[in-house]
């Protein structure tokens, strides 16, 4: 229903107009009442402005002007605008284009479709770029590309992180090939910024499409999005016209991209400033911590096992250990993340195809120090186990883990992995997407990562699916965890053609923590309480926490060359 049908106008004694409902009850003054273009509800404009431009009735997100967006995320009076008077040309001599631009400048008060500059977010200095959809739907012409490139170049010079808010219809048609070249220009500037070891956060808002999606918007070290934002290369209308089909509900929305592995997280607008601040804080250079010394290789003997290594004198049957490692109430990866780390922010997706929930990963703090944490994740109930595929990762999961590891290497964050998988998923779709290649690539890249890597086997360590997260500087095991070439059932089936002989196979395979410690495959083993559950986890996590602290002290003081050489020799001697 239109507002005109809901209310009639009258005049107050002051002469100002007011709305009176058809029932005769006075309503809000004219100009304060608006209609939500999502739910159709009547809303008060001031309520929307004070509520982060979110409809109080349906929760729908309205688009935000660039300067208002800056007010929402930057500290008060901290924004310093750059390149304010930079304007585009008319490379195609497109008729009416210059007049169109001039009209938009008068109407919006903007010189172009993006605002760039420097600001602080909770005291942390950052370079900001914010698109404004009021200016030709924030399409990227020469001036937009130039402003982004200049901002990124200056951020590189000043060693500052960059945050770009995308909201765009894509490349600017009126500028033809010149507009297309801005995709390469912005990407190249961001590559230099990345090569300098600096952080780039991309925030995708509604809509982000076309050439902007295919350039700076999707190149963030971390990519965040607002709920239900339209994000895609080709717009939905173009796709429907091309394929002659109606698109499914939710296609190309933020939630669709999260499910398909292309963004790290969806952040509600009221939480965005705090989330950005937390991420920025995780990437601040800590001058008190020596990450790496100069690259010099010295002969370092293999570290001897300390008193933290525990092997019980009593011997339990290997098959009993297998059964304990698989117990449904045994603590899982997410439990260790919650007990050992603070400020954990989960990142999603492999940037290729999907977000495999069999692997959890992100950044956190360990005793105040930023680290990257990755865990193979079993569920705590049947529903969770189905969602997490019973801890059996697909290629997408391994690619997500590797993406986070390479990100950790760039920012010199130690990597801590928790291994708990029966093995990599062996379904048809896993083979179609390259399961073997994904595992091989992880092992290959992990062997040369220039940052400390620790892997802890907390349950099952099944085959190459476990090794893809255990090619580390040190590998530790819990007392009743296992690590093997494949499951005992599989071993018996292949060698003896009888999977029922799994118990005998477990003994032959030497897969217990004690066996592997004696073989020199793992460096430490941690004692477990009887009937190990989340209720008595502290008996494991307390010594484990102390050992992780010792590991970080040791390995963070090695040069990159020492670190990679030591890791190479660890496996070379096996």
List keywords for this structure.
574 residues, 20% strand, alpha/beta, 22 helices, eight-stranded mixed β-sheet
Mind explaining what this structure looks like?
This protein has 574 residues and is of the alpha/beta class. Helix 14 (395-410) packs parallel to helix 16 (435-446). 41% of the residues are buried.
Summarize the structure in short.
It is built from 22 helices and 21 strands. Strand 9 (162-168), helix 6 (176-195) and strand 10 form a beta-alpha-beta unit.
CA(first)-CA(last) distance:
75 Å
Principal-axis shape: elongated
Weakly predicted, low-confidence segments:
1-28, 287-309
Strand percentage lies at 15-25%
What's the alpha carbon Rg, rounded to whole Å?
Answer: 28 Å
The residue-averaged pLDDT reads 90
Class from helix and strand fractions: alpha/beta
The total of helices stands at 22
Strand tally is 21
Compile the SSE list and pairings.
Layout (H helix, E strand, L loop, with lengths): L2 H4 E5 L5 E5 L4 E4 L3 E3 L6 E3 H6 L15 H8 L6 E3 L14 H12 L5 E8 L2 E8 L10 H17 L3 E7 L7 H20 L4 E10 H4 L8 E4 L5 E2 L3 H8 L10 H6 L5 E2 L5 H11 L35 H8 L7 H8 L1 E5 L12 E8 L2 E8 L5 H6 L7 H16 L4 E7 L6 H5 L2 H12 L6 E10 H5 L6 E5 L3 E3 L3 H9 L5 H8 L3 H7 L4 E3 L11 H18 L4 H13 L2
Parallel strand pairs: 8-9, 9-10, 10-11, 10-12, 11-13, 16-17, 17-18, 18-19, 18-20, 19-21
Antiparallel strand pairs: 1-2, 2-3, 4-5, 6-7, 7-8, 14-15, 15-16
Helix pairs in contact: 5-6, 14-16, 18-19
């Amino acid at each position: 229903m239109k507002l005109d049908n809901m209310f009639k106008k009258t005049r107050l004694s002051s002469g100002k107009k007011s709305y009176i409902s058809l029932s005769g009850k006075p309503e809000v003054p004219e100009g304060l009442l608006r209609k939500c273009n999502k739910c159709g509800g009547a809303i008060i404009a001031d309520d929307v402005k004070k509520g982060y431009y979110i409809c109080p009735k349906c929760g729908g997100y309205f688009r935000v002007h660039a300067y208002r967006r800056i007010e929402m995320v930057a500290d008060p009076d901290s924004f310093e605008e750059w390149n304010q008077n930079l304007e585009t040309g008319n490379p195609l001599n497109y008729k009416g284009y210059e007049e169109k631009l001039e009209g938009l400048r008068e109407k919006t008060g903007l010189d172009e479709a993006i605002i760039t500059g420097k600001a602080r977010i909770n005291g942390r200095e950052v370079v900001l770029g914010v698109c404004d959809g009021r200016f030709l739907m924030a399409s990227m012409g020469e001036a937009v590309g130039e402003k982004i490139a200049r901002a990124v170049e200056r951020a590189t010079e000043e060693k500052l992180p960059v945050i770009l808010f995308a909201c765009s219809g894509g490349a600017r048609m009126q500028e033809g090939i010149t507009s297309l070249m801005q995709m390469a220009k912005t990407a190249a500037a961001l590559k230099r910024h990345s090569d300098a070891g600096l952080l780039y956060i991309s925030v995708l808002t509604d809509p982000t499409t076309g050439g902007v999606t295919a350039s700076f918007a999707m190149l963030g070290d971390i990519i965040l999005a607002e709920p239900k934002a339209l994000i895609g290369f080709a717009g939905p209308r173009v796709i429907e016209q091309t394929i002659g089909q109606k698109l499914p509900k939710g296609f190309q929305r933020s939630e669709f991209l999260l499910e398909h592995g292309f963004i790290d997280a969806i952040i509600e607008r009221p939480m965005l400033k705090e989330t950005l601040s937390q991420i920025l804080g995780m990437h601040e250079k800590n001058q008190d911590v020596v990450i790496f010394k100069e690259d010099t290789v010295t002969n370092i003997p293999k570290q001897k096992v300390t008193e933290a290594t525990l092997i019980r004198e009593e011997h339990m049957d290997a098959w009993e250990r297998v059964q304990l490692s698989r117990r449904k109430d045994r603590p899982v990866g997410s439990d260790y993340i919650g007990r050992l780390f603070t400020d954990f922010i989960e990142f999603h997706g492999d940037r290729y195809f999907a977000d495999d929930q069999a692997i959890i990963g992100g950044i956190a703090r360990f005793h105040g120090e930023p680290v990257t944490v990755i865990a193979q994740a079993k569920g705590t109930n049947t529903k969770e186990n189905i969602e997490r595929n019973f801890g059996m990762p697909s290629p997408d999961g391994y690619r997500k883990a590797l993406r986070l590891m390479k990100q950790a290497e760039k920012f010199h964050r130690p990597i801590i992995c928790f291994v708990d998988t029966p093995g990599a998923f062996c379904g048809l779709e896993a083979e179609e997407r390259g399961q073997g290649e994904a595992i091989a690539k992880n092992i290959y890249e992990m062997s040369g990562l220039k940052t400390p890597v620790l892997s802890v086997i907390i349950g099952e360590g099944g085959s190459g699916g476990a090794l893809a997260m255990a090619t580390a500087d040190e590998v530790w095991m819990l007392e009743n965890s296992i690590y093997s070439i494949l499951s005992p059932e599989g071993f018996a089936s292949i060698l003896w053609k009888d999977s029922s002989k799994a118990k005998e196979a477990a003994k032959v395979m030497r897969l217990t923590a004690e066996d592997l410690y004696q073989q020199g495959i793992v460096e430490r083993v941690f004692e477990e309480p009887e009937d190990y559950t989340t209720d008595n986890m502290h008996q494991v996590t307390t010594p484990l926490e102390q050992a992780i602290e010792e590991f970080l002290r040791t390995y963070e003081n090695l040069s990159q060359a020492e670190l990679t050489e030591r890791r190479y020799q660890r496996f070379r001697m096996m």
